[in-house]
């Protein structure tokens, strides 16, 4: 397990997501408010679309793919609605001070 810094907490506005590249990984980090952040693979499992460009639902803890509208669980990466049927990688997130860290060798299986 390796903890890698992805971003600062101020880089991601509340209720939104931003894209970061870490060790060759494309990571979408979402800010759910209250110091809660989630991180998943940024590329949709259905076709080529970037999930960070989609809408974050802070109550349901999902992000909606901007291309065809599948929603993904931000904690597990699993799709909650069609047309996507495959999940995306989800990363465990730790916040230390102003730093958002992800565990890169222990991805939650999609
Ligand atoms: S590209 Fe994401 S649902 Fe189709």
Can you give a write-up of this model?
With 110 residues, this protein is mainly β. It is 0% helix and 42% strand. It has strands spanning 3-8, 17-22, 25-33, 36-41, 56-57, 62-64, 71-73, 90-91, 93-96, 99-103. The strands form 3 sheets. It has a 4-stranded antiparallel β-sheet, with no helix packed on it. FE2/S2 (inorganic) cluster is lined by residues 44, 46-47, 49, 65, 67-68, 70, 83-84.
State Rg: 12 Å
Q: Which stretches are poorly predicted, pLDDT < 50 over at least 5 residues?
A: none
How many individual β-strands?
10
Give the helix/strand class.
mainly beta
SSE layout and pairing:
Blueprint: E1 3-8, E2 17-22, E3 25-33, E4 36-41, E5 56-57, E6 62-64, E7 71-73, E8 90-91, E9 93-96, E10 99-103
Antiparallel strand pairs: 1-10, 2-3, 3-4, 4-8, 5-6, 6-7, 9-10
Can you tag this structure with a few keywords?
42% strand; 4-stranded antiparallel β-sheet; 3-stranded antiparallel β-sheet; mainly beta; 110 residues; Rieske Iron-sulfur Protein; binds FE2/S2 (inorganic) cluster; globular
């Amino acid at each position: 397990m390796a903890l890698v810094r992805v971003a600062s907490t101020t880089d991601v506005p509340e209720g939104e997501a931003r894209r970061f590249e870490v060790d060759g990984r494309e990571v979408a980090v979402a800010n759910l408010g209250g110091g809660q952040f989630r991180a998943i693979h940024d590329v949709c499992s259905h076709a080529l679309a970037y999930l960070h460009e989609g809408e974050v639902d802070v109550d349901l803890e999902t992000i909606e793919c901007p291309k065809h509208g599948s929603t993904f669980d931000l904690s597990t990466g699993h799709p909650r609605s069609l047309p996507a049927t495959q999940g995306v990688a989800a990363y465990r997130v730790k916040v230390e001070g102003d730093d958002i860290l992800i565990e890169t060798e222990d991805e939650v299986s999609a």
